[in-house]
Amino acid sequence: MLWSASWAEHEDAGSPPSGARPGTRSVSLDRVSDDSGSGYVTSGQEYSRDTTYITDRITADGSSGWPVEPGRYRLVIARACPWANRAAIVRRLLGLEKAFSMGICGPTHDERSWTFDLDPGGRDPVLGYERLQEAFLARDPEYPRGITVPAMVDVPTKAVVTNDFMQMTLDFSTQWTAYHRDGAPDLYPEHLRDEMDEVMQRVYTEVNNGVYRCGFAGSQRAYDRAHDRLWTALDWLEERLATRRFLMGDTITEADVRLFTTLARFDAVYHGHFKCNRQKLSEMPALWGYARDLFQTPGFGDTTDFPQIKEHYYVVHADINPTQIIPMGPDTSNWLTPHGREELGGSPFGEGTAPGPVAPGEEVPADHGPGGIGHRPDEERRH
Fold it and tell me: What is the pTM of this model?
């Protein structure tokens, strides 16, 4: 996720560190254009997300200094985080499991970092770290920004390469092509990129970030404005998806991945916890059918962990939910009901094929999927 209690003060763009210590690689920080935001609640204020990330890229020609090389990198995610969930989905859709491994942080974190508390001994089995923070400090011991997922880590040096989540998944599509599975979809088709970029930017600022503007609004006026802005965008999407199966037409693209991870959390978290409650997702016919269509497509639902999602938001956001009690509902078995979207034509993978089974060790527990209500008791959480 892109915020925590101690990171929220970093709302300004900041400045890159003056230089790394000997033996470390300098950090290039850049800012994503964004006028929306998230953070913990500050009375009377609207919020701007800290959008400064390490923007290094892993490229096919190696011109970035980080060449595509199978087995060299490790993707670190948290299933609770919508931005990290995107990376897990794209990796699975493209069949990149053998190209780079994946580490999974637990759903809660403290003011320092996401932790590997789900792994035996509380350490990532490849990196040996207890906290993702260690990978950022290996890159720059004076790293000044938030410790965020997803992150790509260079395994030989155990140092983070990039946490620029928007560019990261596009690079999975365009730079790792030599390692895509047979039948992999083209998630960023060149002939659609101009329109896709516009759609994805609107989805990002108005929906992906829009729910956070509602949830972290520090005044009634800020909330009212954020709520109206969010639902303007959701009404636009409801209309757009009434006549096309996916955002860009007949097959899935990166745009669908980016919207899906917010929709998957909507009724479970955003409707109540973030007060995005004009309607439930399940009360919007086109969006609800579309979301179920994606959920039932390999790569989407099988990377979604509802109990971890709820645990993250309801436990970490103690200013919004002081008791840190995790609700039992909603019943998520409705994600498996028929969606009827086939009537619009098209198919998720077009002329390609669906990915195979989830890689061993990366499965979402059965009771954490549709209809599952399990979550960790207090004594098992580290936060």
Answer: 0.89
